[in-house]
Write a structure and sequence with these properties.
The chain has 322 residues and is an alpha/beta fold. Helices cover 31% and strands 22% of the residues. The chain is built from nine helices and 18 strands. It is globular and about 65 Å long.
Length: 322
């Protein structure tokens, strides 16, 4: 049984908020003295500083409140996480999809190609995903080249954020996993423990700064290979006793790595789907280096796995009960 249709509570009507209602502006431009004149007479509508604060706070904390129970949480907004979010949001507009990214800037390592060069190489057949997104490329036979990696990343990020059922919380770190005993007596990943990234990086310098939590029946983890916050869920499975040891990422071999990552994308523990290069640390797969088709394909497969789990589960208040 699929989860209930996603709902998003709009901020309540307030005189300090300019919001569209029924397709019309709550306050029309005619009510303000504004002028778009680039000859020295450009004039903005008036604003109070408190209006800016309230406009941000009301919307952001409304999102936090509403997404405390999500349908799918995606950890990591790199190329795999964003590909997963796009495929999920496009095919299941009923799902509440919440993306958490530890960095201020989403996109992971997909803003550049290899060694800080700009072109992005994508092996076929992953170019079909570029076609779907409308990203242009040069065809080199067995692979294609996007002129700048940022063209892919900015395009998919824009499209993902345009879906009404997707929320992205960047500068937000996942500090832990919620792990509960499920209806079958198994240890199940049932949500995430979150905090502002700057708080997470300063636990040793301040007194206790407790986290927040998000409950979800499916977690997709795509935090990349080992690094400051990479392979987080894979490492946490070991310390939580749900995985004996990490496989540890092997040396670079593009021909082995990309199919291994796409084909190996799966539910590695009840409730937790692993995608992208984090999987190489979990399974002991080869790294792929500066070729990105495997990340796209892994994200799409993770989305398919998430839909399969949701469609085969009975879910109540974000918990799998049957």
């Amino acid at each position: 049984m699929a989860p209930p249709v996603a709902t998003f509570s709009q901020p309540e009507e307030s005189p300090i908020l300019l919001s569209k209602q029924n397709g019309h502006l709550a306050k029309t431009d005619a009510a303000f003295k504004v002028q778009e004149d680039y000859e020295g007479n450009y004039q903005f509508a008036p604003i109070e500083e408190a209006e800016v604060s309230r406009a941000m706070i009301k919307r952001y904390f409304n999102i936090m409140y509403e997404r405390a129970v999500s349908d799918v949480v995606i950890i990591g907004a790199g190329s795999a996480g964003l590909s997963c979010a796009y495929h999920l949001a496009k095919n299941r507009p009923d799902l509440k999809i919440t993306i958490l990214e530890a960095n201020v800037a989403p996109g992971g390592g997909a803003w550049l190609g290899g060694q800080l060069m700009t072109p992005m190489v994508v092996r076929k057949p992953a170019n079909k995903f570029l076609d779907e997104l409308g990203v242009v490329y040069e065809d080199e036979g067995p692979f294609v080249v996007v002129k700048h990696a940022a063209l892919f990343t900015s395009t998919i990020l824009s499209k993902v954020l345009s879906f009404p059922n997707v929320v992205l919380m960047n500068a937000t770190a996942v500090e832990d996993l919620i792990i509960r005993e499920d209806f079958q007596g198994r240890q199940r990943v049932s949500g995430v423990v979150t905090n502002w990234t700057l708080v997470a990086l300063n636990h040793d310098t301040q007194s206790c700064m407790d986290p927040n939590v998000i409950t979800a029946p499916v977690i997709v983890t795509a935090t990349g290979h080992d690094g400051p916050m990479g392979a987080f869920s894979a490492k946490r499975l070991v310390s939580a006793g749900l995985l004996k040891e990490l496989g540890n990422m092997r040396g670079l071999d593009m021909n082995r790595s990309e199919p291994a990552i796409v084909n190996g994308t799966r539910e590695v523990a009840p409730g937790l789907i692993m995608a992208g290069m984090e999987l190489s640390e979990h399974d002991g797969a080869n790294r792929m280096g500066p070729t990105f088709g495997g990340m796209m394909g892994s994200g799409i497969k993770a989305a398919r796995e998430a839909m399969r789990i949701l469609d085969s589960s009975q879910i109540v208040n974000g918990k799998v009960v049957g």
